[in-house]
What does this fold into?
Amino acid sequence: MGASVGIIPTRLTEMGIRVELNGKSIAIVIFVLVGLGGLLGVAYYMRNGMTDSDCQDNMIQLMNRVNMYRHMNDQFPPSWMMIEYIGNHKLSEFPCPGAVKNGGGPHSASSDYIYIPWTKGEAGEDWDGKLPVFYDASYANHGGRGINIKFSDNSVMFDEGGKWLKNFAASHPNAKIPMPQ
It folds into this structure.
């Protein structure tokens, strides 16, 4: 037989209700609680969509493709089309989750992010430094708070209000950096 559970509120025992749990019962209760927790997590995820970090993760995957091309050719891929052909996933598998949540579509990396195919002439002294390579095409992707930026040095940042990008564009007028909408 199982043991009496000592954490049952006093009222139940005062009412003459005795609760006994054996090992199998405890396992079932734990399984049900974990299952409910998982369902709540899935429901939250489906209601609120992917997170800002999921957007950054997609940018990392895209940057891996750019880096492969760059190391083989000593230049950035000239277009989204070249990025599409590197690797075994389509660009439609890397949309900005915030843009998808906002609706419209169809969404893909090439519609949700701006890509800058840097040349050595445009980059100048920054060629081996920190250049913005991918960033959100719309401030609405992240509730109007700002944009994610993926850099050539493989770092990523969330740029509140696009302030960093605006300053960088002003200091690199030859690059003609497009601003998010």
Notes: Residues 38-50 have pLDDT under 50 and may be disordered.
